[in-house]
Structures are given as structure tokens and as C-alpha cells.
Amino acid sequence: EVQLLESGGGLVQPGGSLRLSCAASGFTFSYYAMSWVRQAPGKGLEWVSGISGSGGTTNYADSVKGRFTISRDNSKNTVYVQMNSLRVEDTAIYYCAKTTRYEHARSALHYWGQGTLVTVSS
Amino acid sequence: DIQMTQSPSSLSASVGDRVTITCRASQGISNYLAWFQQKPGKAPKSLIYAASSLQSGVSSKFSGSGSGTDFTLTISSLQPEDFATYYCQQYNTYPYTFGQGTKLEIK
Hints:
The complex is a heterodimer of chains A (122) and B (107).
Chain A: E1 3-7, E2 10-12, E3 18-25, E4 34-39, E5 45-51, E6 58-60, E7 68-73, E8 78-83, E9 92-99, E10 109-112, E11 116-120
Parallel strand pairs in A: 2-11
Antiparallel strand pairs in A: 1-3, 3-8, 4-5, 4-9, 5-6, 7-8, 9-10, 9-11
Chain B: E1 4-7, E2 10-13, E3 19-25, E4 33-38, E5 45-49, E6 53-54, E7 62-67, E8 70-75, E9 85-90, E10 97-98, E11 102-106
Parallel strand pairs in B: 2-11
Antiparallel strand pairs in B: 1-3, 3-8, 4-5, 4-9, 5-6, 7-8, 9-10, 9-11
């Protein structure tokens, strides 16, 4: 059974940093690209970032480019997102998702974690 | 960015009904279109990928169609557990984008 468990969320001040983790199990982690998707309170879904199975290719939404960095450790079956220069508008539940292919490009989201809440507020 | 527009934004239906939700892309995305279901307080669940392929374990009451710019999600014989919010998403071109959601409510 595929399981994705996010952690690392919490309250942070504007301008601060946070690193989210997503621990995966139930599949061969290095074979699949992974994504982060967020959802602001009461709002819709927004794709944030994606990474290939090797970690060699990454992509970002314009809203986070230059501030967020996605990475993965295939030896730990974990994907991360390092979030710097956080803004109030980054407040959201952050979900990690397993995709259907090794490469992230044109790879559908498949399994989702339960999410972790990030609140950016002074 | 490719804009995804869903219609309707909300929909009231009865148990047993068949409903269709439409998703339109602002430019062609071939068949790189997915559908998700989300219930309050829960993570989204993947239903359909590649416009018409059912994710494993998903009920065949869900079906998708379309290509290019126009897509539909059809849910047959609605049951109480189907009342939720549904999102489409294009994954043809970065940044990947979602529709605004369609809230399916019980009439």
C-alpha cells in the first residue's frame, strides 16, 4: 500500500523559512517523480513543484520560483521542499503526491499524502 | 500559463442522477488532463488521468473524455459518497494548473 506522510508544517513569520518532508513507502521510491501541491484555506489546488525520480530535474510554479527548493533523498525514500522568504500568501496545506512516471514532465499525480499545514503570520 | 475553466462551479443533484462536469483549457493540452475528487478536510483523490483512463481502484461510475481543449467528467448513478468537490488539472505544460473546482451538492 502506497503511503505518503508529510511533516514539518507549522507557524512561521513572514520572511522566515521552513522545510517540509514527505516520507514514502509501499513503492520503489526512486522509480517515480514526485510533486508538491498546496491549498490555501477555503481555496482551490495549486501545483507548486515537481522532481524527477533521480532528482536531476526540477520544476516550479512562478509564485515560488527562487524561494522554494525541491529535493529528494532516495536512500531515505523522502522528498523535501525547502521554503525560504515565506509570505503570508504561502499559507496553505501542502500535499506531496506520487506521480505515475519516472520523469515529472507529463506525469499525472496519483497518490496523495494527508497534507501538512503551513501558516505564515506575524 | 494555461487557464483551466470548469463549469459549472456548483451543481445540485439527487442520489441516482448522472452528472457531467466540463473543463476547458485556454490552449490545447492533448490528453494530459486529470480529474480529482476532494471531500471536506481530506486530501484530493485521483480519479482519471490521460483524460479518460481510470486510476486503479476507482469505481467505473466515473468516466472521462475529451482531447485538445474540451474535457468532461461524468459520474453515473450518484451515491451519497460522491458529493464532493471535483478538480481538473492539466499536466501538459509547466506550470501545471488546476480548474477552480466544481462543488457537487445533494439536492
